[in-house]
């Protein structure tokens, strides 16, 4: 019996010490991790709206309102998770960066930031999180694919497997239609939110 009690006390002490150490590690690393995440986010913002001087959190963001706008638009597999207002050097609003999480990826969720000027022009997209198949879906991270959305002013995009031309047409990745569909729908979700919640429109 004494041996059982002794072993129990030892395990309890080990658990308490380990828990305390983990807590300390968390407190020590929490701020640097948050800073790194914020820097990565700002880098993504600058990638998709390079002409902006600064970015501010969109104070009126409402996740429920965003979800309703997407549902009304027929996009139920995406979530708008964050919105930033892009400012020019004079401090005036020049557009938005809309961050979308797509639940349609082949390898899991895909998180994308979409830069949209106030006139509805998509200035660029950047993958924040993606784990698609190497050599197939991961090609969505390459400029050859992402740049198809760049500097396009359309109401929505659609992917094609036939090489059909048009500003709204995106060439599907060979062997990765699911990824292509997920990314295209995510960008369209950002446009729907921009058009119906932020009050923007094409040729505003």
Automatic annotation (TrEMBL):
What EC number(s) are associated with this protein in UniProt? 7.-.-.-
Q: How does it sit in the membrane?
A: Single-pass membrane protein
Localization (cell): Cell membrane
Q: Where is the FMN-binding domain?
A: 105-194
Keyword tags: Cell membrane, Electron transport, Flavoprotein, FMN, Membrane, Phosphoprotein, Translocase, Transmembrane, Transmembrane helix, Transport
Entry's Pfam families?
FMN_bind (PF04205)
SMART domains, from UniProt? Answer: FMN_bind
Is Transferase set as a keyword in this record?
no
- Tell me, in one coarse class, where this protein mainly resides: membrane
Give the family per the record: Belongs to the RnfG family.
**NCBIfam families, sorted:** rnfG (TIGR01947)
Quaternary structure and interacting proteins, as annotated: The complex is composed of six subunits: RnfA, RnfB, RnfC, RnfD, RnfE and RnfG.
Please give the function described in this protein's UniProt entry.
Answer: Part of a membrane-bound complex that couples electron transfer with translocation of ions across the membrane.
In its UniProt entry, what is this protein called? Ion-translocating oxidoreductase complex subunit G
Natural source organism: Faecalicatena faecalis
Q: What is the lineage of its organism?
A: Bacteria, Bacillati, Bacillota, Clostridia, Lachnospirales
